[in-house]
TrEMBL record:
Organism: Dulcicalothrix desertica PCC 7102
Classification via PROSITE patterns: RESPONSE_REGULATORY
Protein name, UniProt field: Response regulator
Signal peptide residue numbers: none
Keywords: Phosphoprotein
UniProt keyword annotation of Nucleotide-binding present: no
Length: 128
């Protein structure tokens, strides 16, 4: 079973994402509400992937990603950004930094698991 760490300062987004990924994909979902909580949980929980919000107070998603990369325990965990603002130039910059991809918010809850699977090369999830 895949374990996904979902990081967003908005509890509503955490809940929607958790319900979608658990119900549709059958994955275990761990949530965090801040960049520092993300780094801590990534170290202890060792998720298969991290869905990381870009716009967060205190430490944003990019700075959080840099902290994950600087840590030998978490640097190989694939990170997908969740962001309201995304352009082609952003995608290129993210890829150059080692971020797997970005998913635009608002996302389609029923498509999220397949988007994550496609980005990470995991098998497709059936939505029956």
């Amino acid at each position: 079973m895949k374990r996904i760490l979902v990081v967003d300062n908005e509890e509503y987004i955490q809940e929607v994402t958790k319900i979608c990924l658990e119900t549709i994909a059958g994955w275990e979902v761990i949530t965090a509400g801040s960049g520092m909580e993300c780094v801590s949980k990534a170290e202890t929980e060792l998720p298969d992937a991290i869905l990381l919000d870009v716009m967060m107070p205190d430490i944003d998603g990019i700075a959080t990603f840099e902290k994950l990369q600087a840590n030998s325990v978490t640097k190989n965990i694939p990170v997908i950004l969740l962001t309201a603002k995304i352009q082609a130039s952003d995608r290129r910059r993210y890829a150059e930094q080692g971020i797997k991809d970005a998913i635009a918010k608002p996302f389609n809850p029923t498509e999220l698991a397949n988007q994550v699977s496609a980005i990470l090369g995991w098998k497709e999830i059936s939505n029956e």
